[in-house]
């Protein structure tokens, strides 16, 4: 045992004295490296303190989520995983304590990889197995095996570094402490507490830090505000009109997003924002927030008739989702929703416009080889009208299963990849190659045709790449991009909303005996098991004009989700109910709503 490990051990030892019999477990490490043997003593002591209280957990689509009081042990274990990931990649890793749009008594934990993206899917089985290890013996054995299998270097000079943050949930502080203990229990990796942040801020910082860029919270705000300013400064004369210049009302979901928007707002001179539900006197996600607004299609608390016609936006609990809406004038609390699909369409239009200005002057032959590959990524939940609209623009549209980890991966294959889930989580990714080409083009144009439209288009694209979060979907950066583009186009929210009209749709959840009995293919649009159900769904769907319907097991709840679209609301309701009945018939009794 070297000096450093000895001090880690002694420090942990003094805080968490070993219970009786701990020395017996040391046998299982005898075949591993000396580094792990020595640090395993302190890990074991900590494991005993953070013992799992009997819940079955899965890393799922967005990390572990559960009732906060049972999460101490899980978060501690994810801390160990984050430290190992940092050692394996020799890079800074992120660990976020949040349960996003879930109720305030829940919490969760997820890991950001060195790129700032989600934890690699290859490590998810390990995350599941350590989260569910029944006892300290088992847990330590899993860690030892994994370290050996992955050849994780425990003996180098790099000890690992994990940036830690949490949202505003009251349980966050003690869970953050558990994460810190987990992180430092592995050969003394450093846990750097960033405090209360939005999820995308943490992902942004991890990415920036690993790229050797400025990575503080102030740097984040400065990058967002200066790139926004840059876009606004290049708005063609006469474009910005009175429809856009009005106030923007933002529902902060009583979470971290509202709080951060208040800070960002001070740096924005070109935007009049009023934040409501910023958490001072309301409950997180209760009758507020992007998930509530998008799923229920009703106004959030503190919005109502006086706001009719005003541009409104709603963030979710950890500010990685954003939707826009307007309050309808018939005073029944209903809204006109402008969702993730419409944001995607707006971004695609703007980017396409800039690319065509930029490429106008290019030599036809060069153009053929250097054509910028723009791709749009959606899921089966995207409204069919949005997909038609995008295809009409001549844009390549591809589909992935639900979950941003899939969309992000696909979008990264393009020069410019735009992805959004209908619920408002998404971003625009620019490839390194494209950015390199763009910078070259900007300097070329600066020396030949400075101030030209081509040069401005190139500068706008560069500013978009700096404004929109390159690590993960980000409500704050998404909001600024929407606002900049609306000002650029001189569009009101109504004009934006009228780009196309959503097909009426309906989502239901059906409780079944075993949701894993449903196996899907083709980006979740076809059911291959149980046999026969897809044919039955097809027969129902065929009865409806513009009917489209699919089912899939949720990755975050114990339900089968049913999604139906049709030419009228009544038809969408009817199709979804018939298919929910089919789910009951094939998969056991249940109730749906
Ligand atoms: C229909 C729907 O909104 N599904 C959501 C939801 O996943 P499910 O697997 O459908 O439960 O939570 C995911 C994580 O937040 C999000 O990525 C996804 O879009
Ligand atoms: Mg969220």
UniProtKB/TrEMBL annotation:
Entry binding sites for Mg(2+): 100, 316, 318, 320
Co-factor: note: Binds 1 Mg(2+) ion per subunit.
GO molecular function: metal ion binding; phosphoacetylglucosamine mutase activity
Classification via SUPFAM superfamilies: Phosphoglucomutase, C-terminal domain (SSF55957), Phosphoglucomutase, first 3 domains (SSF53738)
Needed co-factor(s): Mg(2+)
Family recorded in the similarity comment: Belongs to the phosphohexose mutase family.
Record Pfam families: AMG1_II, AMG1_III, PGM_PMM_I, PGM_PMM_IV
Residues the record marks as active site: 100
InterPro entries xref list: A-D-PHexomutase_a/b/a-I, A-D-PHexomutase_a/b/a-I/II/III, A-D-PHexomutase_C, A-D-PHexomutase_C_sf, AMG1_II, AMG1_III, PAGM
Protein name (record): Phosphoacetylglucosamine mutase
Enzyme superclass (EC): isomerase
Alphabetized UniProt keyword annotations: Isomerase, Magnesium, Metal-binding, Phosphoprotein
Residue span, Alpha-D-phosphohexomutase C-terminal domain: 509-581
Biological role: Interconverts GlcNAc-6-P and GlcNAc-1-P.
EC number: 5.4.2.3
Domain of life: Eukaryota
Alpha-D-phosphohexomutase alpha/beta/alpha domain location: 90-123, 159-210
């Amino acid at each position: 045992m070297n000096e450093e490990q000895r001090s880690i051990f002694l420090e942990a030892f003094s805080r968490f004295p070993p219970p009786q019999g701990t020395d017996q477990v040391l046998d299982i490490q005898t075949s591993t490296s000396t580094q792990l043997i020595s640090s395993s003593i302190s890990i074991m002591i900590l494991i005993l303190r953070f013992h799992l209280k009997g819940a079955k957990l899965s890393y799922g689509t967005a990390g572990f989520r559960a009732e906060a009081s049972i999460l101490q042990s899980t978060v501690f274990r994810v801390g160990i995983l984050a430290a190992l990931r940092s050692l394996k990649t020799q890079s800074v890793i992120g660990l976020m304590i949040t349960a996003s749009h879930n109720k305030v008594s829940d919490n969760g934990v997820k890991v950001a990889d060195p790129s700032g993206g989600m934890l690699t899917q290859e490590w998810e089985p390990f995350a599941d197995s350590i989260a569910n290890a029944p006892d300290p013996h088992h847990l330590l054995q899993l860690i030892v095996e994994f370290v050996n299998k992955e050849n994780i270097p425990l003996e180098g000079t790099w000890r690992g570094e994990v940036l830690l943050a949490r949202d505003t949930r009251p349980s966050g502080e003690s869970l953050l402490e558990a994460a810190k203990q987990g992180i430092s229990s592995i050969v003394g990796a450093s846990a750097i507490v960033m405090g209360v942040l939005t999820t995308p801020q943490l992902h942004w910082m991890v990415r920036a830090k690993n790229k050797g860029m400025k990575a503080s919270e102030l740097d984040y705000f400065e990058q967002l505000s200066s790139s926004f300013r840059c876009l606004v400064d290049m708005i063609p004369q006469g474009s910005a009109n009175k429809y856009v210049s009005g106030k923007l009302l933002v529902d902060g979901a009583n979470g971290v997003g509202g709080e951060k928007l208040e800070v960002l707002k001070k740096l924005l001179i070109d935007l009049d924002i009023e934040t409501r539900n910023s958490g001072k006197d309301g409950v997180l996600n209760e009758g507020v927030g992007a998930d509530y607004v998008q799923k229920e299609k009703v106004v959030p608390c503190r919005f109502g008739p006086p706001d009719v016609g005003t541009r409104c936006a709603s963030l979710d609990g950890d500010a990685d989702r954003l939707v826009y809406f307007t309050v309808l004038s018939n005073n029944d609390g209903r809204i006109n929703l402008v969702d993730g699909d419409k944001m995607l369409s707006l971004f695609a239009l703007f980017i396409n416009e800039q690319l065509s200005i930029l490429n106008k002057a290019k030599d036809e032959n060069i153009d053929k080889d250097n054509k910028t590959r723009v791709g749009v990524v959606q899921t089966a939940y995207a409204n069919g009208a949005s997909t038609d609209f995008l295809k009409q623009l001549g844009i390549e549209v591809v589909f992935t299963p639900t979950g941003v980890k899939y969309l992000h991966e696909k979008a990264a294959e393009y020069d410019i990849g735009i992805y959004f889930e209908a619920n408002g989580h998404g971003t625009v990714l620019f490839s390194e190659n494209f950015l390199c080409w763009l910078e070259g083009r900007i300097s070329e144009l600066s020396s030949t045709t400075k101030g030209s439209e081509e040069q401005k288009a190139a500068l706008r694209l560069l500013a978009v790449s700096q404004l929109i979060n390159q690590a993960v979907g980000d409500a704050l950066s998404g909001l600024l991009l929407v606002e900049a583009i609306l000002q650029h186009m001189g569009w009101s929210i109504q004009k934006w909303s009228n780009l196309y009209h959503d097909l009426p749709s309906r989502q239901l959840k059906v409780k079944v005996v075993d949701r894993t009995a449903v196996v899907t293919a083709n980006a979740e649009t076809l059911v291959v098991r149980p046999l026969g159900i897809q044919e039955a769904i097809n027969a129902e769907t065929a009865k409806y004009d513009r009917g489209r319907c699919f089912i899939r097991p949720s990755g975050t709840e114990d339900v089968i989700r049913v999604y139906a679209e049709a030419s009228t609301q009544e038809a969408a309701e009817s199709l979804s109910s018939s298919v929910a009945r089919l789910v009951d018939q094939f998969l056991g009794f249940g109730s749906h709503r």
